[in-house]
Amino acid sequence: MGEEEKKTPGVPPHEVYIDYSSKSDDELRNILEDLLKEESKVSYQRRVLHGKIDILRAELVRRKKSSLKEGKSIISDEDIGRLSEILAGEALGIHRNDPTSD
């Protein structure tokens, strides 16, 4: 089987099985460099998302504190209903927090 037959069109090299023992040192360095660049991009995106999450959580906390000052309940009927739905789903085996499911 030639090198052309081993390649899968449209699939990045790191997503297919690679026989590293047949690669030269330069080829291995290039693969490593590509993977490190990809990891850096993913890490940056994760940090941006965590920043957005932190900002949203802080705003929700601020609003809850404001509601408490106004004498409102910290837990609304809507919150209780939503929690009941989540717990009922978990009891039925529906896992809403599985990050691998879409």
Structural key phrases:
102 residues; mainly alpha; 0% strand
Question: Could you characterize the architecture of this molecule?
Answer:
This protein has 102 residues and is an all-alpha fold. The protein contains 3 helices and no strands. The chain has a domain of 64 residues. It is 63% helix and 0% strand. It starts with a helix and ends in an 11-residue tail after the last helix.
Strand content: under 5%
Shape: elongated
Tally of contiguous helical segments: 3
Task: Summarize model confidence as the mean pLDDT.
Answer: 81
Number of strands: 0
Helix content: 55-70%
Radius of gyration: 24 Å
Low-confidence stretches: none
- H and E string: HHH
User: Quick one: biggest sheet?
Assistant: none
Which class of secondary structure composition applies to the elements? mainly alpha
Chart the SSEs and their pairings:
Blueprint lengths: L2 H4 L18 H45 L7 H15 L11
